[in-house]
What we know:
The chain has 268 residues and is of the alpha+beta class. It has two domains: 3-147, Jelly Rolls, CATH 2.60.120; 157-255, Homeodomain-like (Arc Repressor Mutant, subunit A). It contains ten helices and eleven strands. The strands form two sheets. It has a seven-stranded antiparallel sheet with strand order 1-2-3-10-5-8-11, sandwiched between helices. Strands 4-9-6-7 form a four-stranded antiparallel sheet. β1 (3-8) and β2 form a beta hairpin. α1 packs across α3 (132-147), α4 crosses α5 and α5 packs across α6 (187-198). The radius of gyration is 18 Å and the shape is globular.
Amino acid sequence: MGARLITATAEAAAYVGDDWLLYVDASGSYSHSEMAAPCLLLAQPGSELHVQGDDAAAPLCASAMLHAAGSSSCSTEQHVGAAFLYFDPLSPAGRALTQLCQAHALQPWTTPALPGWEPDWFQALCHGGADRGAVLAWVARLRAALMAQAPEPDVDWRLRTAATLLREDLAGRLSVAQLAERVRWSPEHLRKAFREAAGMSLSRYQMWSRLHRLIDANRIGVHDAEDSLLEAGFYDAPHGSRAVRRYFGQTASATLQPGIRRADCHGA
């Protein structure tokens, strides 16, 4: 599995792997967004985030939180840096995180102790100066910690096939009926089984795939926001821009800011 540093500015950086996306921001600019995929939300070391979830009566104050896909939240206290680690909903870590969020869409993650979450490491991530292998190892430790807390049931090959077809068809040309025919299920059964396994609908999973590809587009030199949105499979730039603001809480231009450094990172 490869890890790629996509963009880095003085205060923020984005990294992407085959089934995960990491955004680290030291500016504390997080305000409101809907989670595009199961997400581990980490406050900068030594701090707590104050976050209001859409299914909670009061803000949650914690240094680490688990956030289910599709749930919304807003920060009630600014100027606290944070890291957002998203996992593909059908990946083992994504499924573990979804299972851990069955009681509440947003909840604290207190155990185990966060591996390697130190101020120097946070700053290295924010500035794009983290060693490539170290990023891979850190994400792997967090992945293992999540999976250790939840069972890992098998995912039916038909669901994996449907997910692959959706990732390859980012423009949305395949209908549910066509997907169901490819995996030899009825459309109704495919919809139900996919939602149970991934914690989201087929169309929502395709949105995650587009957003993942959108961030990765900078790796291949697509820096213009409109070109990046089209490359990711959005119908047009306005549609893509609305999706970015909905899920990342900021404009497409800000999300895709080229920054001062870009590099390919391939891990062992």
